[in-house]
Design a protein that fits this description.
- It is globular and about 65 Å long.
- By secondary structure, it is an alpha+beta fold.
- A hairpin with a 3-residue loop joins strand 13 (279-284) and strand 14.
- It has helices spanning 2-17, 34-44, 64-68, 72-75, 106-119, 142-152, 172-178, 220-226, 238-247, 308-322, 334-347, 349-361; strands spanning 26-31, 51-59, 80-89, 96-97, 102-103, 124-131, 159-165, 180-185, 194-195, 202-204, 257-261, 268-275, 279-284, 288-295, 298-306.
- It has two domains: 23-216, Cytidine Deaminase, domain 2 (3-Layer(aba) Sandwich), CATH 3.40.140.10; 231-361.
- The strands form three sheets. An eight-stranded mixed sheet has the order 9-8-7-6-2-3-1-10. Strands 11-12-13-14-15 form a five-stranded antiparallel sheet, with helices on one face.
Amino acid sequence: MNAYVAVMRLSELILGAIDEDSIPRARLIIREGTLERVFSDCQRNPHAEIGGRWFGYFVPHDDDRQRLNLPAELGDIEGDLHIILDYIPTGPNPDRATEVELQPDRAYQLWACKKLQADNPDIEVLGTWHSHIPNGLEKFSGMDHISYQSKLSKYPFPRMVCSLIYRMPHDLDSIRADLHHAWYEKGAPLGEHHFEEGEEIVWFNDVLPLPEVIDLEDFSQFIKERGAEDDGEWRPSSVEWIAYIDSLSVPRNGVAPEILIMPDGDDWGMILSSHPNEISVVIQSGRNTIVSWNRNGEEIVAENISGVDEGFVRLSQLCKEAGLKTIPLHLVHQQMVRTYLDSRTTEKPKRARWHRIIFFWK
């Protein structure tokens, strides 16, 4: 009996000697430039969830080597530092991108991560962010919790940053206020998390690393490097491309697509115009995509490009150079065509088949 009491008192003595202030504190530090990129992604994707993988540096409270390489104003901050430089976008071919679900293009994100780490070996994936703007859900979903729990089981750090925005931002200040950042601790029960207080977040300025690798719209480098890897993949027919793009015909950002069927019924074109007779882009299908740029009836650019996906990438480049907004590339790619066709087949298979016939003979 006396021995048991002695052990209890020793335990209480040890616990009482622990100073809570000595426990490493997690500090969230974010590059200011991420605000503009998150704002752009949200504005261009109002009807589908969007997001990306946070990347940057994890600097443990006792890692003097990494602290010496940080700017003085960051290196002097106490605790475990989670320094977010930016994020790897969803990518050109997400597995799912709907109003209630986002499954990113894993091949692209892995490729981008390897590029970033080859440039700077200290870079790590620190977490994720996504939007609930299309559905308005003001908290993480059950599927979010399951996804984060599975990632934490293989995660090398004590905690992960998971961020959520559920209101459409109107400016950078609203992004700063409405993009909420939560800590998911390794080993915690499923779904358990706590949000970081906004005033505790440290913001800093720095250049965007490898902008050509993590561009929000231009995935040409990734597509080029994949090369012949896509040759065995399923590709939509021109009719299936038309059906999908027509489903996006609600004007987005003031730009409405117009679908044209060529007289022979096999080729098609899409015109995106910011103003009649001013600037237009036409894409025609086929094994060799033709991207042509016209202004007031005069042909400015005409290029033969191998593949429809590459054509959309080139279209995006031309539009960006001219300051013309287009349908987000996240919403125009062959995997989304497959998702769209599958959903129509599941819901109304007979009508979906008839719908395609109508487009063919229109």
